[in-house]
Amino acid sequence: MSCLRYHIRYLFVSVILLCLGGVFTLQAQTGELRRPFQGVRNLGMGNTGIGLSFDENALFYNPAGLASVDSILVGFPILVEVSEDSVSIVNEISKLSGSSTTADVVELLMGKRVHFRNLTDLNLIMPFGEVMTYGVAGGYETQFDLGVRNPVSIEIDFGFRLDEITNFGFGMPVARGRWLVGAGVETVKRCDIPLKTITFGEVLSNTNLSSSFGSCDLNNLTRAQTYNFGFQRRLETASAMKMIWGMSAYNVGGLKFNRSDNETNPSDQNLELSTGLSWQPSWGPVRMLYAIDLRDLTMKHADDTYCQSNKGTDCIWKRLHIGTEFGFFPIDSGASTFAVRAGFNQGYFTYGFEFNPLIFFRFLNIQYAVYKTETGNKIGDRPDKRKVLQINFGF
Asked: Positive or negative CA dihedral for 3, 9, 11, 17?
């Protein structure tokens, strides 16, 4: 009987290692700068967005960018993001025979990370001439992280996060359009199991995994509310290049969750100040866009404990984002019939594309991006390559 119970536990662990990877998203080790609702367009451009947002992504990068939207936008995007390790693991698992053991599965996972992010939301951008533009977005984002390491004494990393987010904002031009200003209010309801490492033996000996990894109530999410502000300055001295300089302040007053006295999660998020520069020269049917951002200027991001006390050059590099886009046959200020993108996120190359198959309409919009992000503290520490696909239905 004890032998049977032992094999059942091994089987249960295999189910966790295999099945959970298809349900949640990869969390970072303490150093990843985790931000919800990151746009596919932005990720393909090195995750820039402070000085260039022309669509619903402005709500999460710089609300002042809403003022640049020149048409009504309604979207229902469905996004899926996986790590490169996740893809290779699925391919390898499909080759396993029916007689494969838990040890075989663990060997496949050793040194790899399973990362999955899913985002489904509904957004609306409503411009009122050149006076004011309103935007609202709301939806769910699920993230999961699973890793196996240390072949001598096997360790398992596990983390999970579910966000229900509503973001309402506006942008407006002032001073004859030379300045764009914006503000927004963001409500977050979160279930969070921070990344935790336990040994394989602990998993096998503990029938209640929630006591090992932690748990949260999916039916009773913890709520927080914060405010976002931003501005963009159209630089007249470089009007031929359509240069824009911008700054944003996110989580003004802090994102503070209504936890009970004995709870530590979800963790609060600090004020984040960022700045960016973009320029957009026009050339016939081709729209060129270049951007550079420096995020989290004070290095107070709650998920980066290392840089809060060690503000070196590597911490600045982790916050540097550079990107470009070439759009062919623009539909409006925020989309092209076809666009290719490239950039650098924390020093790693990113790329992506956008395709609107209906040519003159946004009803079906397909976007794809590949990027890499640091999941450790220092530069070069645990880079994770991720692939993102989004299908957006709207107009």
From this structure: negative
The neighbour count for residue 48, using CB atoms within 10 Å, is 33
Q: 388 forms bridges with which residues in the sheet?
A: 81, 369
Joined tokens for residue 260: 């009970």
pLDDT, tens only, 15-56: 333 333 333 333 333 457 889 999 999 999 999 999 987 888
Query: Cα–Cα distance between 320 and 50 in angstroms, integer?
Result: 12
* DSSP per position, 13-30: HHHHHHHGGGTS-PPPPT
Q: Residue 185: how many CB atoms within 10 A of its CB?
A: 13
For tokens 């470009």, name the residue. 324
- Of 119, 183, 135, 104, the C-alpha closest to 334 is 135
Q: Look up tokens 């096998």; give the residue.
A: 204
Q: Calculate the dihedral angle through the C-alpha atoms of 289, 292, 293, 294, rounding to the nearest 10 degrees.
A: 180
Cis peptide before 63 (omega within 30 of 0): no
The b/e string for 203-214 (b: 16+ C-beta within 10 A; e otherwise) is beeeeebeebbb
The CA radius of gyration of the chain, in Å to the nearest whole number, is 22
pLDDT tens-place string over residues 144-186? 888 777 666 777 778 899 999 999 999 999 998 899 999 999 9
pTM: 0.84
Q: Is the pLDDT of residue 372 over 80?
A: yes
CB 345 within 8 A of CB 325: no
Which three-class secondary structure state does DSSP give residue 107?
helix
Among 278, 290, 325, 303, which Cα is nearest to 373's? 303
Inter-CA distances, 322 with 44, 48, 88, 260, 312, Å: 10, 6, 28, 41, 20
The two three-digit tokens of residue 18, written as one number: 């295999």
Say how far apart CA 74 and CA 71 lie, in whole Å: 10
Cα 59 off chain centre by: 13
CATH 1.10.8, domain 2-394, yes or no: no
Contact 146, 20 (CB under 8 A): yes
Q: What is the pLDDT of residue 344?
A: 96
Res 124: pLDDT: 96
What are the counts of helices (DSSP H) followed by strands (DSSP E) for the chain? Answer: 9, 15
User: What is the per-residue DSSP string for 253-282?
Assistant: T-B-----TT---SPPB--EEEEEEEE--E
Token output for 167: 């973001």
